[in-house]
């Protein structure tokens, strides 16, 4: 009985999502290739066809592998896709990694997307924020409100779990993709961001991913790397050969100390300082 009700409620949310997208008539989608924006792009393409355009920002704040993956996923979905450079580090509030960093980054992103929307004669800009995003510290949502950017997934009450379930039903391989965030989220607030530091974190995470670890973060604390992984994957670090290889590799990248956070992976741990 409960399963039936849950299925019916989810189908209702999905129906409302399609209706809302159709009511917008044409959209530019802030598209990263993550779970949420890929699902949104898929439904938008199904609902609007060539009147939906997915756009990816290319920035040193975003892992290069994620940008390449976004391009590949867009082709699989079939949606029109474009990308553009976003020089985030040239914005002082971003490079200084202020607590409001995300606000300024999203503001710059949405400004570009609106400019593109006007040039393409598309009516609206939308992003992939979901219903649960309202519960975390997300100053980017203020930028979305100020710039009149719609969040269809949030508006229709879709949670991350529900989006994963619907993505699986649609055959999207992002359905079980680990959550991602910009590389700036690996640093304590007010620590100046540089290309070298961002590259250091990106290379460390890429190495660990190639070792088979999925949900992870390498938090940058000066000369110390604090690794977060899911509790189910912690056993990997207690194998002597693997542990020594990880330590040596991260030391070559410039870290002196390599630590494992025993709490495991948690989204937004840097927000605990606020």
Keywords for this entry:
274 residues, alpha/beta, four-stranded parallel sheet, 10 helices
Structure in words:
The structure is a single chain. With 274 residues, the protein is an alpha/beta fold. It has helices at 2-24, 35-48, 64-77, 92-95, 101-120, 140-146, 152-155, 160-169, 195-210, 240-252, and strands at residues 27-30, 52-58, 80-85, 124-126, 216-221, 224-229, 257-260. The chain is built from ten helices and seven strands.
The outline comes out as globular
Structural class: alpha/beta
What proportion of the residues is helical, as a percent range? 40-55%
Largest sheet geometry: 4 strands, parallel
Task: Give the radius of gyration.
Answer: 19 Å
Q: What percentage of amino acids are in beta strands?
A: 5-15%
Number of strands: 7
Kindly report the average pLDDT value.
93
Compute the separation of the termini in Å.
43 Å
Number of helices: 10
Identify the strand order in the major beta sheet: 3-2-1-4
List the secondary-structure elements in sequence, H or E. HEHEHEHHEHHHHEEHE
Which regions contain 5 or more consecutive residues with pLDDT less than 50? none
Task: Please describe the topology of this protein.
Blueprint lengths: L1 H23 L2 E4 L4 H14 L3 E7 L5 H14 L2 E6 L6 H4 L5 H20 L3 E3 L13 H7 L5 H4 L4 H10 L25 H16 L5 E6 L2 E6 L10 H13 L4 E4 L14
Parallel strand pairs: 1-2, 1-4, 2-3, 6-7
Antiparallel strand pairs: 5-6
Helix pairs in contact: 1-2, 2-3, 5-6
């Amino acid at each position: 009985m409960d399963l039936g009700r849950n299925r019916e409620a989810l189908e209702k949310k999905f129906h409302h999502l399609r209706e809302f997208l159709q009511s917008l008539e044409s959209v530019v989608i802030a598209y990263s290739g993550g779970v949420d924006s890929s699902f949104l792009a898929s439904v938008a393409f199904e609902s609007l066809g060539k009147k939906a355009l997915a756009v990816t920002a290319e920035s040193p704040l975003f892992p290069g592998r994620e940008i390449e993956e976004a391009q590949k996923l867009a082709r699989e979905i079939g949606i029109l896709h474009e990308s553009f450079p976003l020089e985030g580090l040239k914005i002082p509030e971003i490079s200084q990694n202020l607590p409001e960093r995300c606000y300024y980054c999203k503001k710059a992103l949405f400004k570009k997307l609106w400019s593109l929307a006007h040039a393409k004669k598309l009516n609206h800009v939308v992003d992939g924020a979901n219903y649960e995003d309202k519960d975390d510290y997300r100053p980017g949502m203020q930028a979305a409100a100020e710039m009149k950017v719609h969040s269809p997934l949030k508006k229709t009450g879709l949670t991350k779990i529900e989006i994963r379930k619907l993505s699986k039903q649609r055959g999207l391989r992002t359905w079980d993709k680990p959550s991602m965030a910009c590389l700036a989220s690996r640093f304590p607030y007010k620590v100046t961001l540089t290309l070298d530091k961002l590259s250091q974190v990106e290379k460390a995470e890429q190495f660990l991913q190639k070792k088979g670890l999925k949900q992870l973060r390498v938090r940058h604390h000066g000369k110390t790397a604090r690794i977060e992984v899911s509790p189910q994957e912690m056993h990997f670090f207690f194998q002597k050969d693997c542990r020594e290889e990880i330590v040596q590799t991260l030391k070559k990248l410039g870290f002196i100390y390599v630590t494992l956070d025993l709490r495991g992976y948690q989204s937004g741990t840097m927000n605990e300082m606020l």
